[in-house]
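Hi Y.,

Following your request, here is the sequence exactly as I used it, all 94 residues.
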Amino acid sequence: MQPYFLASLCKNGILGGGITVEQDSFTYHTGKVTVPSKYRNLRIPFRSILSLSIGNTLLFPWVSVSLSDGEAYKFIIFGRKRFLSLLRAGGVDC
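Below is the corresponding structure, written out as C-alpha cells. Let me know if you'd prefer a different format.
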C-alpha cells in the first residue's frame, strides 16, 4: 500500500484532498468537481522538483514545491516529517 497523507492544495483557496507517494513521484488527489481537472490528480515526478521550502501558517504545516517547468505548488500536509523523509528516500534534496 502506498503511503497516504491528508493534504490540501493552496491554489485559489484551500482544496482538501490527499497525497500518495510512489517510488518516483507523488500525486495530490481531490474529489471536488469544482476544482479544475489539472489539479484533481496532480502528479509531481521527483526529478522535476527544483526546490522545497517548509513552514507553518496558523499551526498548519505546509510544503512549497517549485518545479523545473516554472510551476510552484503549496500544500498543507499532515505528517509532513514522514512525507519529507519519503521524498529524501526517493532522491529529492530537501
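Helices lie at 37-40, 80-89.

Thanks again,
Q.
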